[in-house]
Amino acid sequence: MADLITPGYRFATVTSDDHRGLIYIAAFLTFTYSTLTFLTRCAIKWKVFGFDDWATCVAQTTSIIQFALLLVSLTAGLGRNFDLLSNDEYSRMSTTQYSNQIVLYLSLGLSKCAAVMLIQRLFTRDAKKFWLICNIVVALMVVWTLLVVFMVSVGCSPRSTAPPTEAEICPGIFARYQIVAITDALTDIILILVPAYLVWQLQMGTALKMQVIAVFAFRLPLIPLSFLALTSWKRSLHSNNPGVDRTTAILFQQSELCFSLIAGTVPCLKSFIRSFDTGSGVKVGYTSNGYGSSGYNRGLSYRMQSLNTAGSAVRSHNEDEGNVKVSTKPFTSGGHGRARASSISNVTTVEYITPKPKEVDAMSHGSQDELFIRRDVQWEVRSENA
C-alpha cells in the first residue's frame, strides 16, 4: 500500500508537530455548510426579508471575517509546535488568533439574536405579550454578546491567550472561558424554551406543537459543543505542546459556530413556516367568546351591515387585508316544543382575519408571503323575526 502513495507536494501534512491539516478541513467544511445554508435562506425569503434575515446577514459576514482570520493564523503557524515557529510567525499567529476569538463569539452572539428575531416575527404585532418576551430576550442576547467579546479579550495580550508556557497564561482567562461556556449553554436553553412556551399558548394540536418545538430544539447539540471546546482548550493550556493540542478546541469552536448559524435557518424552511398559516383555519385557530373578544385583544367590535332576509348573500373582501367576510342565510327555529314555520331567522357568520400591521418592514411590505402566525376569529350572530 505504501507504494501507491506517490511523493510530492502536500497542502498540509498532519504530523505529531503539525495539525494544521485538521483545522483546514474543519474550517472549509463548516464555512461551506454555513454559507450554503445562508444562501438557501436568502433564496427562500428573498421577497420577505426582515430584521431576522438582516441579523443573519451580519452574523454570516462576521463568520466570514473570522474564517479569513483563521486562515491567516494557520498560515502563520496555528496548529503547529510553537518551538518550530520564528518570533515573527508566532507574533502574527497569536495576534490573528486573538482577533479570531473576538469575531467568532461576535458571530455566535449575532446568530442567537437572529434566532430570537425569527421567533418574534412568527407572531403578529397584536400579540403584545409575545412581542415583549421576545424583545427582552433579544436585549439579553445583545448584552451577552458584548460581555463575551470583552471577557475573551480585555486585559489579556495576544501572547497570553496562546501561551507557549504555563507561566505566560493570562491570569483568570480560564475562569472567563468557564463563564462564557456556561452562559452560552444557558442562552441556547432559553432559545429553546421561549418558542416552546409561546407555541404552547396557541390553540394548536399537540402533535403540531411538538413538531414546532422539535425544530427549535435543533440547537441542543450546541450545549455539549460549548463545553467540549472549553475542556479541550483547558488541556492545551497545560500541555507540553500547546500549539498542537489547541487544535481540538478550535475544531469544536468552528463546529459550534457553524451549527448555530444553521440552526437559525432550519425554522425558515417553507414547509415549516406554512404550518403556521391559519388562512384555512385548520391548524392554528382561536375561538371568540360571547362578547366577541379572543386571543390577545379584548373588546373588539365591528359594525354589521343589514341582513338580506330574502335569501342568502355573501360579502367578502381580501382576507389578507383583514376585512370582514359576512355570510347570511335563513334559519328556521322552533320554540316551546312546537315548530313555527313562519318564524325565520337570519344567521350571520362573520369571519375576521387579523390584519397585517401597517408598519411592516420596508423590505417585506406588500409581499403575499409575509411570515406571521395569523389569528382567525369567527362569530355567529343569530337574529329571529317573531
Automatic annotation (TrEMBL):
Q: So which domain of life are we looking at? A: Eukaryota
Q: Where is this region: Disordered?
A: 314-340
Please tell me whether the keyword Cell membrane is annotated for this protein.
Answer: no
List each copy of the Rhodopsin domain by range.
Answer: 40-274
Q: Does the keyword Transmembrane helix apply?
A: yes
Which key words are in the record? Membrane, Transmembrane, Transmembrane helix
Q: What is this protein called?
A: Rhodopsin domain-containing protein
Upper lineage:
Eukaryota, Fungi, Dikarya, Ascomycota, Pezizomycotina
Give the transmembrane ranges.
22-44, 64-82, 102-123, 130-154, 174-200, 212-233
